[in-house]
Predict the 3D structure of the following.
Amino acid sequence: MPAGLNRALLTVVGAVVAIVLAIAISSVAIIAAGADPVAALTAFFDFGASERSVSNNIAAFLNRSVPLFISGLAVAVGFRMNLFNIGVEGQYRLAAIVAAYVGSTFTAPAPIQIAVIVVVAAAVGGLYALIPAVMKVTRGVNEVIATIMLNYIAINLTSFLVRGPFAGERAEGQLTTTTPKLGESAMFPNINFIFDWFGQPPPTRGGGVWGFLLLAVVLGVVVWAVLERTRFGFGVKASGLNGPAALASGVDPRKMIIAAMVMSGAIAGLIGLPEILGDRGAFNSNFTAGLGFLGIAVALLGRNKPVGIAFAALLFAFLDRAQGALQIAEVPASVVTIIQGVIVLLVVVANEVTNRLALRLEERRAAQQLGSNTPVEVAA
Amino acid sequence: MLGKRFNRMAIGSVAGVMLMAAAACGGGSGGGTTASEAPSSEASESTLKVGLAFDVGGRGDKSFNDAAYAGLEKAKTDLGAEIKELSPTADGSNRGDLLRQLADAGYNPIIGVGFAYGDDIKKTAAEYPDIQFAVVDSASNGPNVTGLLFAEEQGSYLAGVAAATKSEADHVGFVGGVENDLIKKFEAGFVAGVKSVKPDAKIDIKYLTPDGDFSGFKAPDKGKVAAEKMYQDGADIVYHAAGDSGLGVFQAAAAAKKKAIGVDSDQRQTVKETNLQGVIMTSMLKRVDVGVFEFIKAFQGGAKGGTNVTYDLKVDGVGLSTTGGEIDDIKDKLDAAKQDIVDGKITVPTKP
């Protein structure tokens, strides 16, 4: 069997074993909580009785996966060169509010207005990630510490901006603070038409299935192409694997650190846009927080590869979607969080185990091919 | 070498994710475990199916959400309603989807607990025009939405009267969670109440976070620091309207051997720490349970939304708790103040 196929097979088996084990462990938790594990498992696949409810739930599931996927991508770009960008959380929140505000200050034809908002979000996220990158390159500051601290600054800055300089009109009797409402031309069109293909009625939920999903797919392909098919991507990976060796072969790791961090931040800047442009039409105090941290789990689960991240994001979104269905089936919703935590932990363990297994298999194969020949000593 | 360091960090971050998950579990546990029983026979064919969506924190918060649930449970026993209550994820991202899932499952009416539902109720109500919605603490924003509001300033006025009468130092304090219009109503009522008894009394006022930053409702550490300062400066009774942060106010009161006034529910009963129960002189009750129950009852009677209902002293939508008997001796004074408000002789300001 070719080594590549072997490796892929091992990965899939590892993931399946991890998920089965996670279900088993979670079942124990469900029983301990006094509920029925079978009811819980069915609830995950219960999308409601009416066609309308099925469409709505599919939309909720897909919509949840979009920001998770983008967040996973952002974290993975840093991971690929051993950079731990914990700052995705702060980068996306700051980018989201600035983009939402800038988008509300003018009106232009839809494609232009949306493009401007997307570019602003990416620029803000990228620039905010530039700070820890420069600190690391010039002063050797650990990017983990720097980005965690910058998260606090960004989170407090956004909550100041939303109630201060960027605050918009508040409807009578409402207590949520919000930026000015975006115009119709700033809203990203939905892709509800895909439901027609399957003869389903379109979802009625606010915003339907977010069109940003398509942009996220394009983004995934671009990230894959850049990392796997360009000289820049090679430079990033080489610097991550071994800085001095990369330097010796003509890649400046310092440049690569800055480039990878800014790229990671620019992608992070887009995390909040599906929600703002697809549904809310503003950044308000109900804006979904915590996606940056979830992205770390998604990236780890997806082994830092765009395709893997897509699957991981879909899995997380699938589990999150069931929050309501589980409670309707009398199962505590916290089961979802337990399953997610257990899966991530087990997959990381499975990764390590399959890595070692694959290594051992490879060694054995190489030894067989070499026969009884002793390996050639290489001068250090 | 780099690889090893990387792995160690990866494991660290996984541990972080697990911690976050554990924290989320703590908040959400207990949500949705109550059985929705088959409707009792007297409910006839037209079954009343009531759905309720909690705010972040869900059931078991010993305060706001639990009070709403008490009203829902009363509807089950008194009106034979079939009930279902859902809690959102820790990030609150699925508030709208919970409402839709309830609507799709045939629940009508549906209640959102907390002003954070304002936006999502508006959208969902437009999508399901045949279903009646209610939102606690937020104004009606649709023809099929009822806003369930409370006259917090009236209850706080009574708290102010009690605090001023009981204060020996003529010095009291107020700790607000978030400086928004809602919490300012508490402050305005409390200050007016204190001044009605002792016009020269000193009142310390502190908000934990500014408008829009809702962390002030769950920061007991900040609540403690704020109350400690007030007690040190000579205040002997501090009233809090700060959600979970109130626990810090009680801790400060216990340490200073002074008194505090709770909020929303009868906190002398709901606070778990026995050493803190004694410092809670009284609590300003906000009867979310009454609001929820009355809304369901009115719905059964055929009421439609589009308006706000304010629960005030007249209908006992707000009031003071008497657990511990510490305000029993001033009952006459409180009853007189209450009667004056109900009769319209006193108009309590809603803005400080």
User: Anything to note?
Assistant: Chain B has a mean pLDDT of 85.
